[in-house]
Request: fold
Amino acid sequence: MIPFSLQKAADISAAIAAAKTGARYIAGGTTLVDLMREEVERPDRLVDINALPLRRIQTEGNDLVIGALVTMSDCAAHPDVRRLQPLISESLLEGASPQLRNLATMGGNLLQRTRCPYFRMLDARCNKRTPNSGCSAIDGYHGNHALLGTSSSCLATHASDVAVALVALDATMNVTGPGGERTFPVEALFRLPGATPHLEHALQPGELITAIRVPGGRYARRARYLKVRDRSSYEFAVVSAAAALDIENGVIHEARVACGGVGTKPWRMRDVEKALIGKPADRASFAQAARLSLVGAAPRAGNKFKMELMPATIVRALELGRDVS
Amino acid sequence: MSREAEPTQSCGRSEAPVSVTRRAALQAAASAVAFATAPASRAQQATPAATAAIESSTIRLVVNGQQRTLTVDPRQSILDVLRETLDLPGTKKGCNAGACGACTVLVDGRRINSCLALAVMHDGAEITTIEGLAKGDTLHPLQQAFIECEGFQCGYCTPGQIMSGVACIAEGHAGSPQEIKAWMSGNICRCGAYAGIVEAIASVAKGGKL
Reply:
């Protein structure tokens, strides 16, 4: 590991002051420490933010406000999360391992780096790691890469599960930084790769995620997360789908659908949602709507199987959501 | 040899003398590992001195009930500190990337991958390692169950499996073989001793021996 210094911030303003002068935030460290050891990440200064008062989960009516330093484990197990947004709990428990979930935080989860293997191979080309160095995945292994939002520079997926749920649920995030506080949709955190895949998110230098807010909705109860992967647990998604439905008398009033493993960011499926409204909550409607997930998809030789797997996963997730008792 | 045929709480292969011998052997092996890693540790310390100014810090840990005060380089993980500074090599370094679970220890009662936890960020933490489970010569019930159920072959992943298993039971995630498999999935066993591992954890959880 390349030498670095580490300071501890006692409060938010101290953390931002350190970040303003170039220090990187570290919370759980499950991504950053790993990538520093691989020398993919090379910060010379870290600021430990674990003492900051961002570990609470609160409710405001049916809205959930989750502190950015709440661990994945604590968030998944929290009674209010399980009661108001079971989708968040389920998606968290489908990610990582118990040991990692005890360390990793909600804010850090959103900012985790891609699991494209070339990103962490220093002798491979990777535009995300080294701008303008090329992409080894395009002509190499891309069996688990994205269909949606790709560019000629990058095909890498965003690996988070809970981000898929948060994007489906219209969650917003509070950030604070040198320019003050602001709030924006979690979906807007993630940038498409375009010609600059090394620029992954919309945070300004020194900005810190403080909380994630999840609005309540009638669809929140009938919500499931289905993760298809190469083994039954502790593996990244090949394709995943979050689905939430508000159904009355067998007819869909409102729907939320997002997918993981298929996009260069957690991918909201708005066309699929629109096609579900007013339709009977049956397999035929689900299958017809799920086909719209393919609009704009750009499969390659290694990942074209996802063109079948993605709509099939959406259909299954919708069925699971519908069948929540 | 069919495990399904033995539904009893204990896996029925207990041989007391074996556990004593095994413990002695583990201690001997542990000393050898500590000796072998000492020169590597010194070599690692020599590099930063020549490059940037590294600010070492003094931290305090309670490790297996004992108060320890030590000086750490910010790059040192809890795993490094346990093995190289505190001479507790029972915790194993497998992948050193948070993927295998061999380095699992309890920090403030929760299982974590100690390879990804920078020691400097855990000042004041209470850590339990595999060395802290037995009471004198009496093995922890899960250690005993791993022997009885043949929950290991080469043994390298075993300390991590046992620490993770202790937490799995304490968390209440050991209610069925299926649940145990899901909640133990962060611990990889390349020998494939999973059947025995699940059986050992299930037997202790069922017996309420923790």
Remarks:
- Residues 1-9, 14-23, 34-52 of chain B have pLDDT under 50 and may be disordered.
- Chain B has six helices and five strands.
- The domain at 54-132 of chain B is CATH 3.10.20.30 (Ubiquitin-like (UB roll)).
- The interface with chain A takes residues 48, 51-55, 74-75, 77, 96-98, 101, 104, 110-113, 116-118, 120-121, 164, 167-168, 171, 173, 181-183, 185-187 of chain B (CB under 8 Å).
